[in-house]
Amino acid sequence: MSAVSAPSAPISRDDLRTFQLVVQHVPNMVVIADAERRIEWVNDAYTSITGWTLDEVRGRRPAAFLHGPGTDPEVVARMREALERGEPVAGVEVLNYTKDGRELWIALNIQPVCDADGRVHHYVAIQSNLTERKRFEQALSEQRRLLQQALALAHMGSWEMDHETGAMVCSDEMYRLFGRSRTDCACHWECFLERVHPQDLPRVREAFAQPTPQRPEHEFEHRIVLPGGQVRWLLQRGRTEFDPEGRPVRTSGFAQDITESKRNEKLERDKQALEQLSRAKTQFLSYMSHELRTPLNAIVGFSQLLQSRADALPPTVARYPDLILQASEHLLRLINDLLDLSLVESGGLALSRDRVDVPKLLHELIVLLDPIARKRDVEVRMEPGARMHCSVWGDSTRLRQSFINLLSNGIKYNRHGGTLTVRVLPGEGQVRIEFEDQGDGIPADKLDSLFEPLQRLGRESGDVEGAGLGLALTRSLIERMGGRIGVRSQVGRGSVFVVEMPRAEEDDGPVSRPAPWIEPEALAAPRPYGRVLCIEDNEFNCLLLEGLFEQRPGLAVSYARTGAEGLLLAQQSPPDLILLDMRLPDMDGHQVYAQLQQDARTRGVPVIACSASAYAEDIRQALSEGLAGYLIKPLSMPQFLATIDRFLPPPVEGR
Ligand code: ADP
């Protein structure tokens, strides 16, 4: 507000009337008030802007009806004081209100009008309406505030640099990003460059030094090092303006903190690399499983054949096949456990979600393990309550495998004449299964390593056979199925292994049965006649099959070493049964099977897969494609014979 000195010549009331006539129709609001600042006259613009007519305001002080809640009382007081001193006021901005309550910003110029003695007899106020401008200013400042807020949220600083001086104008966020304050930084780009990571500095300097009118925009990433040593990534984007001679004048741009997205990018890259590694590991394991089982098939198979003809062997060597079989069974268990453990740990083990009736499963397993329990004189007892139905969620095959481990440990590490008590305790949302033995127990300092692989906890040289893999695998499987496993033990008294599995409610769907290939083969009456085609490339396996088929002398067996040869033989003379190796030199078993299905001559022939892959996923896939059965190598002779008997045609009367 600037004071303007009072006019030197006095103005009469007649002069004012002339003035009224002149300003009646000007666009500004004009008010004439008496010495008491009561309104005497207002022009048309006043009425149209404020809504108040002359009749309504005559004799009233403007403050009485124009001011409102947003009017600044200090500005009003200062104005009044100036007027009381007889001084004019100029350019004062006040928030008034129109008659209907709308905000009305005005710029006020008030001139006291004096008589010849210098006494104020009137005031003339000329007011302009600033409301639109104020609204625009308010909208602008709100936009600026929002922009600043957005830039701060996006960790984005804005800046502008003068190329001649290197001086910069920066937003607050820019200082914050660089760990600078307005006081410690000379607002020169060198000051910001100090924070740039030494390895990135040449690149940053180059990017700023070389803008050309052809390439006025830049975008690049670099690191900065904050005072505490913390490294952050920034993305710089900017544009340079040039003078007519093509010299850079000014560059303006944004710097954005992209550390988080860089970190996420790295995490994503690491994750992909890990996934690739895990896929490679799974492939390798499946290859290894196949390669290790193939020779075992020959060892186990020929030992079984020898065992079946033990009568023909000299008495001194007659028990060797038994010993070879025992050792190879041990080796097979070891291979299976090792591969399963690696597979589950690499995340490559596919698990199904089945509803499993736990008491029923345990009961079956207790019957299965009865021969071992008898041998060790251990009584396995299910507590009466455990006989009721109670289901959990888990992969039925893997749950069975886990329970076999816990039951056989409870038998193996029990005392002679001891008891293994099994309890099933249904709870809220979960089911607890306890295996309590009366063995030696496990010392407290060994409990921690109990579930680690290859830990036998001092049993390495004892008479109990094992490799220290069962519990590690059991824990991994139980946890992957959403359960937990723990142990309580007292040296000299025994141990309690406790498994908790997610409970399945009775109305959660049908109870799952383990896949059919694990079920004990239903014993069929031998079917001695028929024609069998074996598609198998491995020489040892063919020899073994020949040996096994000697047990069924009435069968006519032919052999094909490749998929193509097998298809040809099958089509020329469709057999009664096909045994199909799933990995052949020219194609895989799935392709052979698909082609057999496409041909009307072979479509009805049952096909049994014969594979060294024991993965549940592979078995499920083969059975779902329509293969009639799946025999896992190493082949068990009884299971092999039972399976082929089942699929061969019934004997024809009189043959
Ligand atoms: P394994 O039985 O093949 O050695 P496990 O992983 O099943 O492998 O068990 C690891 C070790 O934990 C065993 O060697 C044994 O020392 C100990 N252990 C397991 N179960 C029991 C048990 N019920 N009582 C005492 N010790 C046990």
From TrEMBL:
SMART domains, sorted: HATPase_c, HisKA, PAC, PAS, REC
Reaction catalysed by this enzyme: ATP + protein L-histidine = ADP + protein N-phospho-L-histidine
Modified residues (4-aspartylphosphate): D581
Keywords: Kinase, Phosphoprotein, Transferase
Keyword Transferase among record annotations: yes
The species this protein was found in: Caldimonas aquatica
NCBIfam families: sensory_box
EC number(s) given by UniProt: 2.7.13.3
Keyword Kinase carried by entry: yes
InterPro entries hit by this protein: CheY-like_superfamily, HATPase_C_sf, HATPase_dom, His_kinase_dom, HisK_dim/P_dom, HisK_dim/P_sf, PAC, PAS
Domain Histidine kinase: 287-505
Region (Disordered): 245-269
Protein name per the record: histidine kinase
